[in-house]
């Protein structure tokens, strides 16, 4: 219980502190290393910057060393011994300050000047089921803008190191770095947290509320498992959700050093990546290798290939196009993702895709990104001619990895520590096929999703898949306009076997395209959960499982037919997991059944539901974000701000208003 604090402790100060107050200080010793030419030609900002650097204690004889900026998503405040003074929003950014320090010391030792700044990030796990989720995806664009402004605010920078870990900070950082153009930039992934020696992973423990409501676990069990799930104080979650997938994508883009993604947070091998990244950015600067030399259309496609091979989070369908847009490259569309997923086999057995459900740190020891790339290179699925931040091509990186001591020792250590064969974690295409691993992402269409939607088809219970590799579900619609209403219905037993939960008003304009893991996790607690499907214009967490279809477009509040569904309508879902084809259709009203084509006409004849409305707590900031991303290509365009398009639309609107005013003058 917090103590009562009297007014005297707020207003009064120890008098001896007054006597110690000063108005002058001697200032740093020495002199700035400036020349007459600098005084005559340099902008005042450069000269004053030297004064400030000296004031902060930098050796004045080294003030003209090349300058490099380190940006991070660090959050919280740690004491020197690691104990908490102020908590961060999540474990993912709690330790990344250590990576900043390691990179900075290496830059300093190599005769460069490191600068450091931070834009912290929120936690999707912490905001699940709360109004905080309404700010989650919009935050990404805001953070990317601030990070870019910070980069430009050090005009003397020679390059930028970005340190980030989790769901929104990592994509935001990559979007910012992607804009670096001729200057080098490198992403240092913040790694992953370790598994508890006994207990559940961070994904599983997020379901304790729903399981307790269904009397599946005791209060004691929930309290103990919840306490130890985050076994170490730093790193992203132990499953292949958005955080881990973003780390994989960064390395696949060539923006991170080989075997940097998914490293164990807080450990020596994790810190080593920061030191080597500092060396790498100096190497890039010396050889005039810029970010635009790394991020190319071929690099974007390589990232999509690795996303498919890992079976990554569907949230990257929003983030990869945004990174491409920031780099001035073509944004991949749904057809591109679909084509890649049909061509590329899934090779990684990780949480939550299964079948073995290995943790991300175990994937790291098995070889992570470069090990998967070896298989993909043999299959001819990668462009290995692309340049990477190591200063070498991807082909050269993979040649090094294949023969490296690092690879041999870490794979052996996985077997010694956990008794796991690394070839069971990262499989060859033939072995993956024998184990039943299938591509993860399917893009259904239909009269309820004319512009498309997405499902992680591997998350469907395998016992529901027919001999023809097809999942079929037909059931009555249970319509909800808020996540909380759907959660209440699940916990109170009002959702039955065979139902189709339809959560609308969850898209950008409705709820900031909220992530609804709380619904999918609550469904897990039901004995018949595999027989309930979910349709939504919102999005899902990378750890979600079940027949969950999201990103339904257009969203309800943009006039999409999903906003015309009524309680009890019959919905048919068909997903072919081998061919990656699917449909989502209205096929019935009451006892009447009709074809999907007739369903188009039925939906067109209906007015939008009269109760459609944005979330009652939707912030004005998010409303503005939704309007801007809608003008910029919407969900399938990556939810970006396309400045040229937005400005053109505003100018057309201004011209129209001006013309209207002249006409009525």
Describe the structure in your own words.
With 665 residues, this protein is an alpha/beta fold. The protein has three domains: 61-195 and 231-430, no CATH class; 441-605, IlvD/EDD C-terminal domain-like (Glucose Oxidase, domain 1, 3-Layer(bba) Sandwich); 620-656, no CATH class. The chain has 29 helices and 15 strands. The longest helix has 21 residues, at 643-663. The model has no long low-confidence stretch (mean pLDDT 92).
List the keywords.
single chain, 665 residues, alpha/beta, Glucose Oxidase, domain 1, 3 domains, 9-stranded mixed β-sheet, 4-stranded parallel β-sheet, 15 strands, 42% helix, globular, ILV_EDD_C, IlvD/EDD_N, lyase, Dehydratase_YjhG/YagF
Number of strands: 15
Task: Classify the secondary structure makeup into a structural class.
Answer: alpha/beta
Domain tally = 3
Distance between the termini: 68 Å
**Strand arrangement across the biggest beta sheet:** 7-8-12-11-10-9-13-14-15
**Dominant shape:** globular
Radius of gyration: 27 Å
Strand content: 5-15%
Low-confidence stretches: none
Amount of helix:
40-55%
Topology overview:
Layout lengths: L6 H5 L4 H4 L16 H6 L2 H12 L11 E6 L4 E2 L5 E3 L9 H14 L3 E6 L5 H4 L8 H17 L4 E8 L4 H10 L6 E5 L12 H4 L2 H6 L5 H10 L13 H11 L15 H19 L4 H4 L2 H14 L5 H11 L7 H10 L16 H7 L1 H11 L15 H10 L1 H14 L3 H4 L3 H7 L5 E2 L11 E3 L13 E11 L2 H9 L8 E4 L4 H4 L5 H8 L8 E4 L11 E3 L19 E7 L4 E9 L2 E2 L2 H10 L14 H12 L11 H21 L2
Parallel strand pairs: 1-4, 1-5, 5-6, 9-10, 10-11, 11-12
Antiparallel strand pairs: 2-3, 7-8, 8-12, 9-13, 13-14, 14-15
Helix pairs in contact: 5-13, 7-8, 8-16, 12-15, 18-21, 19-20, 24-26
């Amino acid at each position: 219980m917090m103590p009562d604090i009297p007014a005297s402790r707020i207003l009064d100060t120890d008098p001896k502190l007054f006597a110690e107050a000063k108005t002058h200080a001697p200032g740093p010793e020495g002199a700035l290393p400036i020349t007459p030419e600098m005084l005559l030609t340099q902008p005042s900002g450069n000269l004053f910057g030297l004064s400030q650097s000296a004031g902060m204690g930098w050796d004045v004889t080294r003030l003209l060393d090349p300058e490099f900026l380190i940006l991070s998503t660090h959050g919280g405040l740690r004491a020197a011994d690691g104990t908490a003074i102020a908590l961060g929003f999540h474990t993912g950014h709690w330790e990344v300050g250590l990576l900043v320090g390691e990179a900075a010391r290496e830059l300093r030792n190599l005769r460069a000047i490191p600068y450091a700044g931070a834009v912290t990030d929120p936690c999707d796990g912490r905001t699940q089921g709360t109004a905080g989720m309404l700010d989650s995806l919009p935050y990404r664009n805001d953070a990317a803008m601030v990070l870019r402004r910070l980069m430009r605010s050090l005009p003397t920078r020679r390059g930028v190191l970005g340190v980030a870990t989790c769901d929104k900070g990592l994509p935001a950082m990559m979007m910012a770095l992607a804009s670096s153009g001729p200057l080098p930039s490198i992403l240092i992934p913040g790694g992953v947290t370790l598994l508890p020696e006994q207990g559940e992973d961070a994904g599983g423990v997020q379901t304790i509320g729903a399981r307790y409501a269904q009397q599946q676990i005791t209060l004691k069990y929930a309290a103990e498992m919840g306490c130890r799930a985050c076994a170490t104080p730093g790193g992203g979650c132990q499953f292949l959700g958005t955080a881990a997938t973003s780390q994989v994508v960064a390395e696949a883009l060539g923006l991170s050093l080989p075997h940097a993604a998914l490293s164990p947070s807080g450990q020596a091998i994790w810190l080593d990546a920061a030191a080597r990244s500092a060396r790498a950015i100096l190497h890039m600067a010396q050889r005039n290798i810029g970010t635009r030399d790394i991020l190319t259309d071929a690099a974007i496609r390589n990232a999509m290939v690795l996303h498919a091979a890992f079976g990554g989070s569907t949230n990257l369908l929003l983030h990869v196009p945004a990174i491409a847009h920031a780099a001035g490259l073509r944004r991949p569309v749904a057809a591109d993702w679909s084509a890649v997923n049909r061509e590329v086999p899934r090779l990684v057995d990780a949480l939550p895709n299964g079948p073995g459900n290995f943790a991300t740190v175990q994937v790291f020891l098995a070889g992570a990104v470069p090990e998967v790339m070896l298989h993909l290179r043999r299959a001819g699925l990668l462009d290995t001619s692309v340049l990477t931040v190591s200063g070498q091509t991807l082909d050269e990186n993979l040649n090094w990895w294949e023969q490296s001591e690092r690879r041999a020792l870490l794979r052996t250590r996985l077997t010694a520590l956990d008794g796991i064969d690394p070839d069971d974690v990262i499989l060859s295409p033939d072995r993956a096929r024998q184990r039943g691993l299938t591509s993860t992402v399917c893009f259904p269409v239909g009269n309820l999703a004319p512009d498309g939607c997405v499902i992680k088809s591997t998350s469907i219970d395998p016992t529901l898949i027919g001999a023809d590799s097809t999942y079929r579900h037909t059931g009555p619609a249970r319509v909800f306009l808020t996540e909380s209403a759907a959660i209440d219905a699940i916990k109170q037993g009002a959702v039955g076997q065979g139902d189709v939960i339809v959560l609308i008003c969850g898209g950008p304009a409705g709820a900031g395209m909220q992530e609804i893991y709380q619904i999918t996790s609550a469904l897990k607690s039901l004995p018949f959960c595999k027989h309930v499907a979910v349709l939504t214009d919102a999005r899902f967490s990378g750890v979600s499982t079940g027949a969950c279809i999201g990103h339904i477009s257009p969203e309800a509040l943009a006039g999409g037919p999903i906003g015309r569904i009524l309680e009890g309508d019959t919905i048919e879902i068909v997903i072919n997991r081998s061919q990656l084809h699917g449909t989502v259709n209205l096929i019935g009203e009451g006892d009447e059944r009709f074809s999907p084509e007739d369903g188009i006409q039925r939906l067109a004849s209906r007015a939008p539901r009269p109760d459609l409305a944005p979330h009652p707590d939707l912030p004005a900031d998010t409303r503005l974000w939704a309007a801007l991303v809608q003008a910029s290509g919407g969900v399938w365009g990556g939810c970006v701000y396309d400045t040229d398009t937005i400005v053109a639309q505003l100018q057309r609107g201004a011209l129209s208003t001006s013309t209207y005013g002249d006409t009525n003058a």
